[in-house]
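Methods — Computational structure assignment.
A single polypeptide chain was analysed. Its primary sequence is given first, followed by the predicted tertiary structure written as structure tokens.
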Amino acid sequence: YSINLSNLFLTLQKKELMIRWIVFLVFVIILEIYAFQAFKTLIKSKWFFVFYYVTSAIALAYIIYQLYYFDRSVGQTPKTMMTMGLLLLLYVPKLLLTIILFGEDIVRFFFGLFGVITKSGSESFLPERRRFVSQIALGVAAIPFASFLYGITIGKYNYKVIRQTLFFPDLPDAFDGTTITHISDVHSGSFDDAEKIQYAIDLINEQNSDMVLFTGDIVNTHATEMDPWIDTFKGIHNPKFGKFSVLGNHDYGEYIDWKSQTEKQANFEGIKAIHDKIDFKLLLNEHVKIKKDNQELAVVGVENWGRKFGERGDLNLASQGLNKEDFKIVMSHDPSHWDEKIQHDDNHYHLTLSGHTHGFQFGIEIPGWVKWSPVQYVYKQWAGLYENAGRYIYVNRGFGFHAYPGRVGIMPEITVIELKKGEKVA
């Protein structure tokens, strides 16, 4: 009986997978039909279309092959990221083009219907597709195409140093002017350019901050992903107050199928060991006190706590021995922790540093004008500084990249925060 149920379950899984592939292929065919119509309106060269469809067919075959043979026991690889990049590069522009031309088809249909009813139409039911609409569609499609291409080739390593000054009336005098370099979401398994990564490490060192804080996701999944980069990240200078880190959701190895729990645990131990190899003190639901001139501030590090990705973080455990009056900086990978817990805690946590969202690696940011990304519909705090009743969170946009091998509009970030004593000047 149990065997029959298992066979039934497998059969249903296969049918569901087949339906997904059929839907995907139908979707692609529709996009290609509309893309052909747009190009045909403007371009008459037969060789252009031969080249276009040969390259499109090769790209689609590559995408299907990579998706079909994706190995859940390995997880993300450079090939799977390239597949995602190619998928977005080819089909997001065509989707926009299709939407525009489909809208024109609706208009053409009603004009044709009107012609039939009034008997004033031409011999053809549908009026001919208008050239300028195809030009508009191709122009609109060119924007995401160029953006995704830029994101893959340049944007993913276009590091930005973002500076932020925060004022606290109860900051201990000795720490007035203290600077923190904050990085997050390294995702070392995605790197493919040693020179660019070294440039980013040099940028971190140029800030000459008093401490360096890293808020998780040092790898995509496997501890070995960091092996080629140990010496590079060990090159981050040891500042006078130290280098501290916490774990992110990817550091627990939850997103692949392991052969055994023992193998998974060994990988987790290897990931924790990475932090010591690069001279970072990994905080696992614990805190350290930074002392200067007989005064203190506390750096509180919690394990990952996320509304969607597990609640391993224990803020109470990490804060044992601290009281409300102590000045506290919390490191918590997922900003939903601050949104749901930290900002409301009676223990008054002054500043929380997070990452996790990557700003979706896609959006529009024009300082003082526009700040938008699809991730804002999932996370209230998704990039930059947020405040509630004198309690702050800063969400770093991420050092590396994941899934899509690029960044569009939301650049990789190195944050420098200066702590100042007093009230914020209006």
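Note: The radius of gyration is 26 Å.
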